[in-house]
Amino acid sequence: MRIDLHTHSTASDGTDTPAELVRNAAAAGLDVVALTDHDTVGGYAEAAAALDGTALTLVTGAELSCRTDGGISMHMLAYLFDPAEPQLYDARELVRDGRVPRARGMVAKLQALGVPVTWEMVQRIAGDGSVGRPHIATAMVELGVVPTVSDAFTSEWLANDGRVYVEKQEFDPFEAVRLVKAAGGVTVFAHPGAHKRGETVPDEVIAELGAAGLDGLEVDHVDHDPATRARLRALTQELGLLATGSSDYHGSRKTVALGECVTDPEVYARIAARATGAVPISAV
Predict the structure, then answer these.
(1) pLDDT, tens digit, 9 for 90 and up, residues 6-36
(2) Residue 112 carries which DSSP code?
(3) Cβ neighbours, 10 Å, residue 257
(4) pTM above 0.85, yes or no
(5) How far apart are CA 134 and CA 190, in angstroms?
(6) I need a labelling partner for 241 at 20 to 30 A (CA). Which of 142, 144, 216, 250 fits?
(7) Could you tell me which of 73, 89, 104 has the C-alpha nearest to residue 201?
């Protein structure tokens, strides 16, 4: 089985619609795919409807925006939770509602630096998705300010220490674990060793999250070099956590292919067995 548990659609900052994502995942030879848009399950119904004619299994999920007490930004993958559970739903909506004023603030900072990005451009690029930095970065590419989306995520521009960065409403990671668990879901810390994205969470905090109920770490990820993967895999063994692998696919916005990193079938089975909020689905 080929299992990819981290993908994005136009419901957040990917370029494939949810239906296109499902069709592309099937064409890529995947057996299981999780749709994990940022702080939303808005694309899930469309993705589920697109399963007909495929042999694909779909996992509902979301990638929750979190920040530690020490101010370190991190992302928490949540799988197979009840999307209607009111406490987690309200918390996701609070985070999503904060995305628009944050993005407007970054556009204003860019304009102050002489970059002619407009809010209308960003809205057009984001469409119905949850607006975020990749949409602003895409506008910068369109204007020729940077050659690629990745080049916008530097200290000069949109990185966490960048000149135009604006903080956003985010989950406390311990609260995220608690809320997802209460909604019957499973939690995996996304790309925990991605140093190029900014400061990473110390191992001792990961250990505390594990004690609080965190289920796993995303070990195999394109932003992790072999040494980082080996260190994280050892950490999962030390802490009794699951080790997953995923592409973090965003369509044409990034060069990563579906299934570039995958999760071991035994680990996926353990995730599905732990979940009580929802079940994976496939075409009837």
Answers:
(1) 999 999 999 999 999 999 999 999 999 999 9
(2) H
(3) 13
(4) yes
(5) 17
(6) 250
(7) 73
